[in-house]
Structures are given as C-alpha cells and as structure tokens.
C-alpha cells in the first residue's frame, strides 16, 4: 500500500488569498497547502479520501490515473467540492464511482450536488457516483480492509479511516474511547491539527499532541494546517510527531 498526501491545508488552503503573513509569503514549498485529500494505492486499485476543492490540481501534480473508490470523511466544502472532477474518471473507466462515507456526509453531497442526482442532462455533464452509506463496521475495499474511525468535529460526526498500519483522521475535535480502541497499534497516523491556538471544531496542535501520544503511533503527521503554522515548527514537536506537507508519500509493505 502506498499513501500520498494530496493536500494538507485547512479549508482556505495556504497561502490564504491576499494574505501577506510570513507563512503565506514563505518560499518553503512545504508551506503551500492544498485542501485536504489522500490517495490510497491499494492491492486492487486506487481510492482517494474525499474530493477536495483542489482535486484537479492534485490529480495533475500526482498523475492520478484512476479513482476506483472514494472514502468521504464528512460533507464540508473543502472535502467535497472537487466531486465534479470525478467525471474524467467516469469517462476513462466507463462506470460510476462508488463513494463511501457516513450517512450525513452522503446526504450533504446529495444536497450540494443536487444536479448530479436529478434526471436529465445526460452526455457527460454530470459526475456519476454511487453513494454507499457506511456504518462503523469494517469492510473490504480494493483488496484491503477499511475500518471506519468515528470522531467528532464539533457536533458533526466525521469518519477517519484505518487500513492496517495506517490511519487518517482529520477534522476532529474529540475522539471517543471506542475510536481510541480502533486506533490502537497503528504505526503511522495522519491526524488533523489546525493551529496552535484553540478552535471550536478542530484539535489545536497541543490537543493533537495529547491524542497522538495516547494513540502512540511510531509516526504521527499533522494535517489540515492553517497559515498560522510554519512548517519549520515541525522541529519543536515531540519525537515521532511532525507536520505533514503536500506530496508526502508513505509506503507500507
Ligand atoms: Zn476540513
Ligand atoms: Zn497568511
Ligand atoms: Zn470539516
């Protein structure tokens, strides 16, 4: 399994439009963060986590050739607005794309992309997706086993996903005990952490460090980072914890 972090920025992306702060004007490419997304190269195909706003740019940058499935975390704009880009994969693959996620996420997608689910306007103008609601049971996907990891993002339920030694949990402000249990023994964890200051619906970096140390992965990478966070701050984090950046690749035997 190969995991590519396609985007590690918060909902605005970094740089923020019009911002002149030190991070937004930084020459360090690791301070350029697209909206949050992941490619999962699995034994029997390629899945992506979410269809972020920047999906087209991410697909071109990383030569995304196929999308055999999408795992949605939740229905917020930064995680779904690239859904229309799936049309290219519909054309190439000649099929609708199965899209899994918690029922609330799929309901949000159905509202946001109402045109895609209405009759009429055929001929390539609409993405073709098959919405497949998940409960929290493990399921088989493209030769791998996927374990949903329910967490809270403010009041909203969000699904993280664990695939064996790897877990991706973003847009999180609270992890229930049952989900700490689902993350036990994970080797590499990608965890949402917005910025150093507190936020109502995202872990701050200090809160994410506490969760990461409890989970105890060999390597924890923080994602969904705002422009408050300079990549050079990675060196100030505890051992085994670092800031993710766009394009980071993780390989698993
Ligand atoms: Zn988000
Ligand atoms: Zn800025
Ligand atoms: Zn969100």
How would you describe the overall organization of this protein?
The structure is a single chain. With 253 residues, the chain is an alpha/beta fold. It is built from six helices and 14 strands. A seven-stranded mixed beta sheet has the order 6-5-4-3-2-1-14. Strand 3, helix 1 and strand 4 form a beta-alpha-beta unit. The relative contact order is 0.18. The structure holds zinc ion (ZN) (3 copies). One zinc ion binds at residues 74, 76, 153, 171. One zinc ion binds next to loops.
SSE layout:
Layout: E1 2-7, E2 37-42, E3 45-49, H1 55-61, E4 69-71, H2 77-80, H3 86-93, E5 97-101, H4 103-112, E6 129-133, E7 139-141, E8 144-153, E9 156-163, E10 166-169, H5 177-183, E11 188-192, H6 205-215, E12 219-223, E13 241-243, E14 249-251
Parallel strand pairs: 3-4, 4-5, 5-6, 10-11, 11-12, 12-13
Antiparallel strand pairs: 1-2, 1-14, 2-3, 7-8, 8-9, 9-10
The site of one zinc ion (ZN) has 7 residues, from helix 2.
